[in-house]
Specification:
The protein is an alpha/beta fold and about 350 residues long. It has two domains: about 35-155; about 160-345, Rossmann fold. Helix content is about 40%, strand content about 15%. The chain contains eleven helices and twelve strands. The strands form three sheets. The protein has a six-stranded mixed beta sheet, with helices on both faces. It has a four-stranded mixed beta sheet with strand order 1-5-2-3, with helices on both faces. A two-stranded antiparallel sheet has the order 4-6. The relative contact order is 0.14. Residues about 30-35 have low confidence and may be disordered.
Amino acid sequence: MIKLIKYFIKFLKTNSNSYEASPITKLNQIKHNDILLSINTKNNTKDIFYIIKRTPGAGLFSNFIFVLNHIKIADSLGYKPIIDMENFPTIYNEKKSINKTKNAWNYYFDNKKNYNLKKILKNHRFIITSNRFSKSFSHTIDNNQFRMLFKKYFKINNNHLRFVEKFKKKFFINKKIVALHLRGTSNKTSANHPFPITEEQTINVLDKLIKKNKYDKIFLCTEDLNYFNLIKRKFKNKIIFLNKPYRSYKDDAFKRYPRKFHRYKLGKDILIEALLISKCDSFIYTNSNVSKFVKFLDDKKVINYFLIENGFNSSNAYIAKWLWYFKAFLPPLLGGFTNTTYVKKN
């Protein structure tokens, strides 16, 4: 009996730990200490470069927010910011070059300044940042200061922008469109994250908002096949979506490699979806870094935002692994999710 109890406890601990994605390329170690900043003063050039790294990093827009906060620091000090996601790889890095670069930042964003990372590391004074997300950093990036700083140094890759414009012209023109971004899979088990909505709540939210606002189409963005199949089955020809993004019933996007350049495409897919969301009339969402990036893009504040508030998961990682499923099973009177959920118009 004791052995059985120990085995059960071990099983719970093993299956309660959240999977942490890791890079598939190796760290090219540049000598420095992982403190807030490491400084190389071996050269006496006038310019000081501010090298921003984040390895292994996190989701694409988490990395984006991290970079923006460091650009703000660099710009305020008169240093020149440059992103190194080649020597310090992220979870999106591929082993082979993408568009002639191995720097994952440049898969998605172009540098406006003609800085050469190899020359900087060899010939210039530089500062290398820590990987840590400082407590002083802001997650709220939908303000003109961050927008102007990004535009000063970087821009979104033109290939991605061209694809978005073609898609918009083909599917969005002369239609009133509501974008829906649903995080499932990992978000159902992530500690201290907003609870995803249940299938019943999803249909109720969509029915109510479509009836009230007379949307022609729904632009659906989700990595969760349960949501995808449910909404596609219910709303049929009313749905617009990208065909190629990776979708699954499980949290395995970074565990598998089912297509060529899969890691790169995971970032590309969510970037394009976010860009397309910013072209829609309305946006239904739960708080995430995706919604923060959409608001960053929406500088004219033309999108109607509908925030889904379904409560938060436990801060305890063991409890969080099961709590969403537990609440989805229980009736509302016993603490389960209600059939409808609160939607706040922002």
